[in-house]
Sequence to fold (552 residues):
Amino acid sequence: MDVTVTPLPGLGTQQDFITNSGHRVGVISYRDGRLELIVSGPQDPDKVAASVELTTEETSALANLLGAPQLVAQLTEQQREVTGITTWQLPITQGSPYDGRALGDTEMRTRTSVSIVAIVREGTAHPSPRPDFEFTAGDLLVMVGTVEGLRSANEILEKG
Amino acid sequence: MHDTALPLLELGAVFFGLGILGRLSWKIGISPIPLYLLGGLAFGQGGLIPLEGIEPFTQVASEIGVVLLLFLLGLEYSAGELVTGLRRSWAAGLIDIVLNATPGALAGWMLGWGPVGTLAMAGVTYISSSGIVAKVLRDLGRLGNRETPVVLSMLVFEDLAMAVYLPVLTALLTGVSLLGGLGAVGISLLTVTLVLILALRFGKYVSAVVYSSDPEVFLLRVLGAALLVAGIASQLQVSAAVGAFLLGIAISGSTATTASRMLEPLRDLFAAIFFVVFGFNTDPSAIPPVLVAALLLALVSTATKVATGWFAAGMQNVRRMGRARAGAALVARGEFSIVIAGLVVSSGDVTGDLAALSTAYVLLMAMIGPIVARAVEPVAQRFIQHRAPVRA
Fold:
């Protein structure tokens, strides 16, 4: 994939690429730290159809949404041979009892025999998290286990 | 007490009037520069009400306005950006000079204003208004467009060209010969190169010297440094504004961001005074005779700027619609054309007609520019769709 980096003198930098569908998608990072998501229309890829200013929080939320499925897809691909094992991504929501607490506190493995293989935070995957890893709202937990185990894991993350 | 009362009243009335004009201009969606000029024309020399007793202040203030305009422009760019911008756009930049300096130069020559007047008019029609262009691009949501980096690097090139051009013009205005003028070209090219290298290597230290975490101290230091460098440059006959521009380039990073945020209101204030004073010194009755020339110049130089943008964007493989947009975006002329004309007028050895023509020209171009930028899409669409079946 060719990501083009273009300096915008006096403003910041623009990074973009052309999608298979013929859209130009990218991000303008302004000097003062603001980020803007840009998407071009299909007729004229030179012209932006939408530019959306994103706060830091919104950027990381978007990055999580886009980053986690990719990780899950890779894991699913790897586990295709093993029957009965599935990969899910579950969020730590605002108000979850584990918001601000350590991974070890969930006792996930003991209670559900599900493994937390990675945590996606602000678009970055933290693989093989240790028991002292502290959750915050917005984290996405990539978990591997049986469907049954994953269901109860979901319940634990929501209700404790 | 009595002798300060009148200047205070006059200044207050001027600022208040400008405030009303500024509000009006944003409402109808044009740059306030033409309205400031009109405001200036209405008063002062040959205007409705001559203002007395504020000249010493307004003269210095308008000089500070020019210094701050260029200083903040310099702050916007880092030396690295300028170098990459230059590398990317030098060919288009040369086309820009040839196409857009020519109409002004021809006008100056045909009106018989001598070599200095010719050079000044070349500058007036050459330089786009980076203030108006940037604002139009932002307002129309075109910052993410593919032609926008092209437009911005054209502006960078023009600003660098100014850093060479202004010292030359200053030198010629002080009456040196053509050979001395060439010497000035050499000196200013050398200075600009030297400052760029210094800024690339030691920009950190320059920033550290002016920086302070206390906003008040910071403001005083930055403003002091800008005026000091401008004064030294002026003493060396290099043009005060260019000195400030180069200092702005040397200051970079977060120091530059904070400095421009702090100085912005000051710049707006002093630049407004500069435009009004320019209007003051222009005799409104001199405008009607040059109106036809100004209209012709506006027409021709709109076409040449559109052509410039069309070429420049084409070099970066932008499609036709984007090329048209790039051309239209560059049309506006404004603050720097007046800076050039102001330099000539204050030296006093070129006719007042130059001030009148520049005023009329900038009045037109500052209004035409944003309109052309807005109208280009529907117009170009018709043209390009009209052509498409022929090509198919």
